[in-house]
Design brief:
globular, Ig-like_dom_sf, mainly beta, 70 residues, three-stranded antiparallel beta sheet, lipoprotein, 8 strands, 56% strand
Length: 70
């Protein structure tokens, strides 16, 4: 889950160097990864049937006033 506010202009979910979602657009092919929320306050994903191969860092990246943050 990633908390956002009205200053955020762009959002993305990443895993290692792969983009999972950019805004509402799904970039990964894994059908287990779904976008739960993309609202003014929350940007969340869900990974169904998680297994050991899903281990690793998941990063929410946001852009505010042309300044990216993770």
């Amino acid at each position: 889950r990633c908390s956002v506010d009205n200053r955020v202009t762009r959002v993305a979910w990443l895993n290692r160097s792969s983009i999972l979602y950019a805004g509402n657009d799904k970039w990964c092919l894994d059908p287990r990864v779904v976008l739960l929320a993309n609202t003014n306050t929350q940007y969340s994903i869900l990974i169904k049937d998680v297994d050991v191969y899903d281990e690793g860092p998941y990063t929410c990246s946001v852009q505010t006033d042309n300044h990216p943050k993770t």
